[in-house]
Amino acid sequence: MPKGGGLTTRGPRNLLRQIREAMAGAAPAQDRLDMVVRTIAQSMVAEVCSIYLRRASGELELFATEGLNRDAVHNTRLRPGEGLVGEVARMAAPISLSDAPSHPSFAYRPETGEDPYHAFLGAPLLRGGRAIGVLVVQNRAERRYDDEEVEDIQTIAMVLAETVASGELLAQDELRDVEVAPHRPERLKGQRFAEGLAYGHVVLHEPPLAPEQLLSDDPDAEGARLSQALFALKANIDHILEGGQGKLAGTSFEVLETYRMFADDRGWNRSLEDAVQSGLTAEAAVDRVRNEHRARFAQARDPYIKERLHDFEDLANRLLRVLAGDRPGDRELPDDAILVARNLGPADLLEYPRHKLRGLLLEEGSAASHAAIVARALQIPCVGRLMGLRDRLSEGDLVIADGEAGEAYLRPRPDMLEAVQSRMEVRAQRRAEFAKLRDTPAVTLDGTRITLLANAGLAVDLENLNDTGAEGIGLFRTEFQFMVSEELPRLDAQTALYKLVLDAAGERPVTFRTLDVGGDKVLPYLETEREENPALGRRAIRLGLDRPGLLRLQLRALLQAGAGRELRVMFPMIATVDEFRAARELVEVECRWARRRGRTLPDRLRVGAMIECPSLLWHLDALLPMTDFVSIGTNDLFQYMFAADRTNPLVADRYDPMSPPALRALAEIQKKCADTGTPVSVCGELAGRPLEAFALMALGFTRLSAPAGGVGPVKRMILSTDLTAARRGMASLLGSSAGSIRSELESLARKLNVAI
Fold first, then answer.
1. CB-based burial of residue 436 (10 Å sphere; 0-12 exposed, 13-18 middle, 19+ buried)?
2. What are phi and psi of 289, to 5 degrees?
3. CB-based contact 450:697 (threshold 8 Å)
4. Residues 246-295: pLDDT tens digits?
5. Residue of 49, 382, 613, 683 with catalytic role
6. Is 370 a catalytic residue?
7. Which pTM was predicted?
8. Which of 205, 370, 382, 673 does the annotation list as catalytic?
């Protein structure tokens, strides 16, 4: 291979065509492979050309060679990371060396006869960012291959990877043992985000589209297609950034800006153009560049750099969809879909048909993320923090989502599937038991009445309200209407939703939480400044007070919807008494506005505050007399108390809410509310888990608001509890110096025969 010369023909197009012709022949598979390596060696003026493919065992086997000892074919195998070939596969990136034997990773295999060859150039055969093989060229003379030659071999490797995967290059008996994609049963341990069990077939959230045609005879025409697709992609993102409708509606504004920046990235655009000019179709060019980025970024240790990998992947996937002419809603889902994604926003999840969605598996996220909250509201089993999940699955794979153990089983064995089906039958029986308790009052064994409410935020929650037996809605999250909309919901749309909620509840109470956005909930149509720490920034009531027009519009809609009946409104993330005073004054402003115009106001208006900021713990004496009620949001309260971002998986599990500091804080709030006669409820996720709800009752709370799926289990716990004995037991535990008293609470519950 002459220095700087690259291929001897006009670019790689003629070589790719020759490879295609070799593969299309009727000769036996090995003969075709031999012809391929001979063609590549001749065209690239290489003395050696070899193809290694990954077996199911993970070893890289020499499948064909031109220049090395032919007896080594199918006999030489290298473990991942062994030798230069193994290193290329491990790194999933090309390696170019002028003196290969002097490299520390060089592994001498005498059966190959490669002693005299010094120059080495290897490129991975990439599928989905995984190396399924390695293509190598070698020369005797010591020399370094230039960038053009590296580019050429990557193009050839990309075509070989696709043809191996398609079955064109190998006999079917050999293809079965080549690991084109993971096919063995696997178990991944993650975290439980939403309880439940489900099995079904994988649906990849915006899955990558494999190009149907790899090679093109008209690079100029393909270049034009690529340019048009890039223009359409950028225009689509611009449209969304301006608040228009599109596939990314509901995604954070900052992420969209990042997408737009990457769409203009010169290096990315130039790589696409070069790949098209090398003879690939526009789709194949995008696929190749995506695989290269994925392999390179996956080696990075910096979390920020790794995050950029996903940005480029998503961008490439969307570009492929533009090229394919796909539109939202075109996808056909199986009736037993298990949705698999890196992460999801709540709007993304709601776009899928509920009746076909059985479960949700995520690589990232947290139990307190809003996708997880929506999954619990929809009663969809959800497991998150499943590292490397998407690389281990293909569209249509059978998978189990175990939301009880926080695990996923990929391509499960028949006996594992039978075991899960048995467990699902048991769960169905438990649900039937809970259904029988629907109309039974939530009264403890010693006669204490517990008010058991449901959290809501979606239309499906209203449908489930009667089925749960909840006595009302203790927390209605109004932000979901804003998050699934492409523009700010108008007054009539907000009013209609709130009326629908009140009508569905009938005589049962409903507590509306005003708009809680900001932090990890960013609306694409609402211009916001970038903040270094959004969880501690302008969010929830702070955003409402800084933009009073936004909050007043929502309060006006609530007052109109509640005309002639009871209306309960509470403000989130109150950190100071002044904030609550200012928010309550806006309610009075809207009431005065309505009276001047002769509008009917609610018969009874009750205004409350959410206790989510630890600062209020030392100012309850000033706050409580100003409120009609308070509600404790344990998710945020403990996040701020323990300085652990609940959406950050690195720290989200660094504390246990069943620890003495957390429980003492809750006990203090309950005591102050009892002293002042202020109604108090707990509406965080704790209220929906039997053991945690048992602890809350033992602290003195008698008003709990749980996710719909938690109402039945918590009611069963209530009916089996001797609350007097539970409070005595809790009092002895609060003085513990342990980091968590969860195990002690479990022992107490078992001792009292509580159904947890």
1. exposed
2. -65, -40
3. yes
4. 333 333 344 445 445 656 667 778 888 888 888 888 888 888 887 777 66
5. 683
6. yes
7. 0.62
8. 370
